[in-house]
Amino acid sequence: MNDRPDIGETGEVNLEVILSLKPQLVFAYTNRPDHTLEDKLEPAGIQVIRMNNYLPDQMDRETELLGKIFQKEDQEPDFYPGSMKLNNCSLTV
Fold it and tell me: What is the CATH number of domain 8-92?
């Protein structure tokens, strides 16, 4: 991944690099303390999607959102509420 631009880290995002890449959307964690990403990127037409990606009670909603974003709503996810399938093994959470 050395050939990919460095956009920084959570607390020090390089907005100029992100803008130069002209993405359609940017994923960010919900725990970022401010709305700098939205303030700077959305006027440029770049949608900011905030997700947790680790809270079990939000996984269904976030998986559905990802399905819509990537136009895969008609495909069943690899995991279901309360359980995950990993390499043909089931893990109940």
Answer: 3.40.50.1980
